[in-house]
Design goal:
Helix content is 35%, strand content 22%. It is α/β, with parallel strands linked by helices. The strands form three sheets. Strands 8-9-7-6-12-13-14 form a seven-stranded parallel β-sheet, with helices on both faces. A five-stranded parallel β-sheet has the order 2-1-3-4-5, sandwiched between helices. It folds into two domains: 130 residues, Rossmann fold; 184 residues, Methylesterase CheB, C-terminal domain (Rossmann fold).
C-alpha cells in the first residue's frame, strides 16, 4: 500500500486576527499543507514550536515587525532547525527583510498593507502555498516514522503538585459576563479560597459587572482597588484598563494595580495576573481559563502548570469563543470542563480533590 504523502506542517505567527484566521482556513484546505496551530506573536509562538513540532513557520512581519524580528533572533540564537518563511506587507523596508534573511528567513512573500478582503486573502493564499511547499520539501530529512496528524503534545516538566491551593485565578474575555453570571453563583458560601478575576473589558464596565455579580453570588464580589487584601470569601474583578497582580506584603497578600504596557494586547491581562500568582504562590493555585478571543492566559497557564498548579479550561462546546481555552487544553496543560460543571470542578480543586 502506497503511504499517503507527508503534509507540510505549518505554524502561523501573525498579530492580525483577520489575516491569521483567513490564512489558517485557506491554507488548511490545501491537501499538501497542515496548519498545526497559530500564535499571535513571538511570546506565544516559542513554546508552541516545542509542543507542535512544525516543519516551518509562516511569520507575518507587517503588523508587529519588532516582535517578528525578536522571534527570528531567538530561533537563530538557539539554532532552531525549523524553517522560517516571512510574510511581509508591502511597506516593510528592505533593510528589515535583509535582517530577517540574516536571521534565517528562508523566503519572503509580499502582501498588500491593511486588513485584506476575502479576494485578497484567496490570492495571498495562492501566492504563499508554492513557497511553503517548496521550503517544506527542501527541509531536513524526516524521521522514518510518520508524525501523527494531530499536534504533538509535549507538556513541560512539572514541579511536584500541591494539594493545598491558596487562591483561584480566573481569566475570561468574549462571552465572559454571561459565563461568569452562570458559573460564579454556583460557588458555595463556604468556598475556601479567595478568587481573582480578569475579564477583558474597558474602564467603568467592570464596575457594573462586579455589582451585578455581587447581587447573584453568595460570595462577595467587588471591583478590585489597589491594596485590597486577598481574603477567603471574596471575588475581586480587575478594573478595566489596569493590570491586576497579587503581591505579598508583611501583612499578607494584596492586589497591585498597574498601568504597565498591555500584555498579549490586553490590559488587564490574564498572563499578567497568572505570572504574579506563580511568583507569590508557586503551584498552590487553581487557574481557570474561560471563553474568550485570542491567546491571553496561554503563557501564564504554562507557567502555572510548570509550578504544579491545577489548570481548568472551559470546553469548546460551552464557550462563546474557543480561543483562550484552546491553547491550554490542546497543549495538555488544562482539563477541559463544561460551563455547567466548572463551578463544581473549581470547588473540588480548591479542596485538593483530583480533576478528571
Amino acid at each position: 500500500m502506497t503511504p499517503a504523502p507527508h503534509k507540510v506542517r505549518v505554524l502561523i505567527v501573525d498579530g492580525d486576527a483577520i489575516l491569521r484566521q483567513g490564512l489558517t482556513r485557506l491554507l488548511g484546505e490545501h491537501p499538501g499543507i497542515e496548519v498545526v496551530g497559530w500564535a499571535i506573536g513571538g511570546r506565544t509562538a516559542a513554546p508552541k514550536i516545542v509542543s507542535y513540532r512544525p516543519d516551518l513557520l509562516l511569520i507575518e512581519i507587517g503588523s508587529q515587525p519588532q516582535d517578528a524580528i525578536e522571534l527570528l533572533e531567538q530561533l537563530h540564537a538557539g539554532g532552531s532547525p525549523v524553517q522560517r518563511v516571512v510574510l511581509a506587507s508591502s511597506d516593510v523596508p528592505d533593510e528589515e527583510l535583509a535582517k530577517a534573511a540574516a536571521l534565517g528567513a528562508t523566503a519572503v512573500v509580499r502582501r498588500p498593507p491593511g486588513s485584506p478582503s476575502e479576494v485578497q486573502l484567496a490570492q495571498l493564499s495562492r501566492d504563499v502555498v508554492p513557497t511553503l511547499l517548496r521550503v517544506g520539501a527542501a527541509s531536513a530529512p524526516r524521521p522514518a516514522a510518520p508524525l501523527p496528524a494531530a499536534p504533538v503534545v509535549v507538556p513541560p516538566r512539572r514541579e511536584p503538585g500541591s494539594r493545598s491551593p491558596q487562591v483561584v485565578g480566573i481569566g475570561v474575555s468574549t462571552g465572559g459576563p454571561k459565563a461568569l453570571a452562570a458559573m460564579l453563583p454556583r460557588l458555595p458560601a463556604d468556598f475556601p479560597l479567595p478568587i481573582v478575576v480578569v475579564q477583558h473589558m474597558p474602564p467603568r464596565f467592570t464596575t457594573s459587572l462586579a455589582e451585578s455579580l455581587d447581587k447573584s453570588c453568595t460570595l462577595r464580589v467587588r471591583e478590585a482597588a489597589d491594596g485590597d487584601p486577598i481574603v477567603r470569601g471574596r471575588i475581586l474583578v480587575a478594573p478595566g484598563g489596569k493590570h491586576m497582580a497579587v503581591t505579598r506584603t508583611a501583612a499578607g497578600e494584596v492586589v497591585q494595580l498597574t498601568e504597565d504596557p498591555p500584555v498579549c494586547s490586553c490590559r488587564p491581562s490574564v498572563d499578567y495576573l497568572f505570572a504574579s500568582l506563580r511568583q507569590v504562590y508557586g503551584g498552590r493555585v487553581v487557574g481557570v481559563v474561560m471563553t474568550g478571543m485570542g491567546e491571553d492566559g496561554w503563557v501564564g497557564s504554562r507557567a502555572l502548570h510548570e509550578a504544579g498548579a491545577v489548570l481548568l479550561a472551559q470546553d469548546e462546546a460551552s464557550s462563546t469563543v474557543y480561543g483562550m481555552p484552546r491553547g491550554p487544553i490542546q497543549a495538555g496543560l488544562a482539563t477541559a470542563v463544561s460551563l455547567e460543571q466548572l463551578a463544581g470542578a473549581i470547588v473540588d480543586a480548591a479542596r485538593g480533590m483530583p480533576c478528571s
